[in-house]
Write a structure and sequence with these properties.
Residues 250-262 have a biased composition (Low complexity). The protein has 308 residues and is of the alpha+beta class. Helix content is 31%, strand content 10%. It has five helices and eleven strands.
Length: 308
Amino acid sequence: MPKKKTGQRKKAEKQRLRQKEIRTAFVQKPLADHPCNAAMECDKCTRKQKNRAFCYFCSAVQRIPICCQCGKTKCMSKTGDCVVKHAGVFATGIGMVGAICDYCEAWVCHGRKCLTTHACNCPLQEALCAECQRGVWDHGGRVFKCSFCDSHLCEDDQFEHQASCQFLESETLKCQSCNRLGQYSCLRCKVCYCDDHVKRKGFKYERNQPIPCPKCNYDTSITKELSMSIRKHDYGRQSMGRDDSDDEGASGYAGYYSNYNKYNDDEGDDDYNNYSNDSDDDDDEDDDEEEGEDDDEKEEEKPKKENT
């Protein structure tokens, strides 16, 4: 008979499980809920952007900095783990700041835990947009993840990418290695695999877990549960041409407006040219009719003169 667990042992096991959940909660937290990816409005230019130490548009220092690790704007701990001790005084503004993250370009407070852990756990370390290949320092918007292929997306391309993400780079839904129907699809590689070719030799698969893609190791999904398509439509900001001048939106929608204005100008010129050509044609027709009437009048006057 196994020995009964004592109350102290049960308490220790519960605490161990709780600590494990706390550690995994930070990894499983949605990217939009992290303080380093929070929405911020500049104090001077009042433009919305991602949480930053300096404004992306006017480079102004923010009056109320937000810690990108814990999300606090005021340090009220009197006997905490602060690197700069401030006994009996609340630290606000620049007095609360300890560093700037090299990845997310946001303030880190002067707490020892935030300073020592954020650089290693920053969720925006490899936040390179899958569509425009821009990093956090190259655009002013927030960073999101695609709900299908789990790729990083900037604020300008997130909706366009997700609208066209479920397509394949082939003409059929068949496996790329054989002619059988692909039962598993990788939304990152855009390839289908059958039941035989999705598994690799010498790889240990976990039970009741999604099978990883043999090419990129991303979790595959069952094809019949997805609305997969084999047609690709190029549309949106990338196909219309991107202008890097940050005149519109968080990171520049000038490509939309330039093409739109160009289209309107061309359309207006065509309308004007058509109108001018039509008016010229009408004038020519009127001239021809007047000349024809004059000739008829002259012919009628000739016989009258002959009779007289």
